[in-house]
Design goal:
By secondary structure, the protein is an alpha/beta fold. The protein is about 40% helix and about 20% strand. Strand 11 and strand 12 form a beta hairpin. It starts with a strand and ends with a strand. Keywords: DNA-binding, Phosphoprotein, Two-component regulatory system.
């Protein structure tokens, strides 16, 4: 099973927010962080670095569009889906102009919201601005860099970046050696080479606190996977 995506749900309706958070988290696909107003929503976004934000337009301390603008100004690049009871064109355009990626009108069906969330996550993962959580790091594939909590940057080669991207998308499923060689280098199955092992060794030297222990990149099932 893939690692759950972190959703930040910002809505001042306590009953609706709590129920929706429970429903979204029920299948294990998503982990949900909750906030009841704009200020706490921005704070939660900076702390949790969510994969996607569900943002109500009508908040007690500010307008959701202003929250979206602040998130973008603070370099929160993940998708933002606005939730609103109004379905006017002006409302929708205002949210999109503020930096939102999509709009869902209340009341909505859970299955439709989940589908919109998945679509935005898929699109973002393929974008230049995608940012992933990898252990203590933020992984920024387009910049070929890992950034730790103190802001220290670990530069990656193109192959190292591609290895981490492929392992990340595989979730908790071990990726066989031959599959990685085929996807990252284009090698046919059965090719005898230590190229992959050498790159994984160098990656561990760069990013593991104990390279010999392999706590972030695990050797398993004739291949590799990332730790949850």
């Amino acid at each position: 099973m893939a690692q759950p995506k972190t959703l930040l749900l910002v809505d001042d309706n306590d009953d609706l927010r709590t129920e929706l958070a429970e429903l979204l988290a029920a299948g294990g696909e998503f982990a949900v962080v909750q906030a009841a107003d704009g200020a706490s929503g921005v704070k939660a976004a900076l702390e949790s670095r969510p994969d996607l934000v569900l943002l109500d337009v009508d908040l007690p301390d500010t307008n959701g569009r202003e929250v979206c603008r602040e998130l973008r100004a603070r370099q929160i690049a993940c998708p933002v889906i606005m939730l609103t009871a109004a379905d006017t064109e002006a409302e929708m355009v205002g949210g999109l102009d503020a930096g939102a990626n999509d709009y869902v009108t209340k009341p909505f069906r859970l299955a439709v919201l989940q589908a919109r969330i998945r679509a935005q996550l898929r699109s973002h993962e393929q974008s230049e601005g995608a940012v992933f959580r990898l252990g203590p790091y933020e992984f920024r594939p387009s910049a070929k860099v890992l950034v730790d909590g103190s802001g220290r940057k670990v530069r990656l080669t193109e192959k190292e970046t591609n290895i981490l991207k492929y392992l990340y998308r595989a979730g908790e499923k071990p990726v066989p050696r031959d599959e990685l060689l085929a996807e990252v280098w284009g090698y046919n199955a059965g090719v005898t080479t230590h190229t992959l092992e050498t790159h994984v060794y160098r990656l561990r030297q760069k990013i593991e606190s104990d390279p010999a222990g392999g706590r972030l990149i695990l050797t398993e099932g004739g291949g590799y996977r990332l730790a949850p």
